[in-house]
Design brief:
The protein has 111 residues and is mainly β. The protein has one domain: Rieske Iron-sulfur Protein, CATH 2.102.10.10. The protein has one helix and eleven strands. The protein has one helix spanning 9-14, and strands at 3-8, 18-23, 26-33, 36-41, 51-55, 60-63, 69-71, 77-79, 96-97, 99-102, 105-109. The strands form three sheets. The chain has a four-stranded antiparallel beta sheet. Strand 6 (60-63) and strand 7 (69-71) form a beta hairpin. Pfam families: Rieske. It comes from Thermoplasma acidophilum (strain ATCC 25905 / DSM 1728 / JCM 9062 / NBRC 15155 / AMRC-C165). Its main location: cytoplasm. Belongs to the SDX family. Keywords: 2Fe-2S, Cytoplasm, Electron transport, Iron, Iron-sulfur, Metal-binding, Oxidoreductase, Transport.
């Protein structure tokens, strides 16, 4: 495992429980859900937009450009983009990352 320190837990709280961070050139979306911290690639696999709308009740994140929706625990696309309703969802998932709180800072396992 290669844990990389990102931002403080306070920054996540100040951002409403969701934040995008840059880790070694990868933009990672981090959200605090009902079952802990989750991280996934923050760049939508459809049009390369940054994800931005975390829905805690469904544990999903929505792309702000075209509405594609991804599970934060698996990265699986569960709703296609509105402009491409026939997109091959099984091929458009996102990489997930382990995230932890280490002494008040969020760390992401980049392996």
């Amino acid at each position: 495992m290669a844990w990389k320190r990102t931002v403080s837990v306070k920054a996540l709280e100040n951002a409403g429980g969701q934040i995008a961070v840059n880790v070694d050139g990868n933009v990672i979306f981090i959200a605090r859900g009902k079952d802990g911290l989750h991280g996934l690639n923050a760049v939508c696999s459809h049009a390369r937009c940054i994800l931005g709308i975390f829905e805690e009740d469904t544990m999903t994140v929505r792309c702000s450009c075209h509405g594609a929706r991804f599970e934060v625990t698996t990265g699986k696309m569960i709703e296609p983009p509105s402009v491409a309703p026939n997109a091959p969802m099984e091929k458009l998932g996102l990489k997930v990352y382990n995230v932890r709180d280490n002494a008040g800072f969020l760390e992401v396992d980049v392996d």
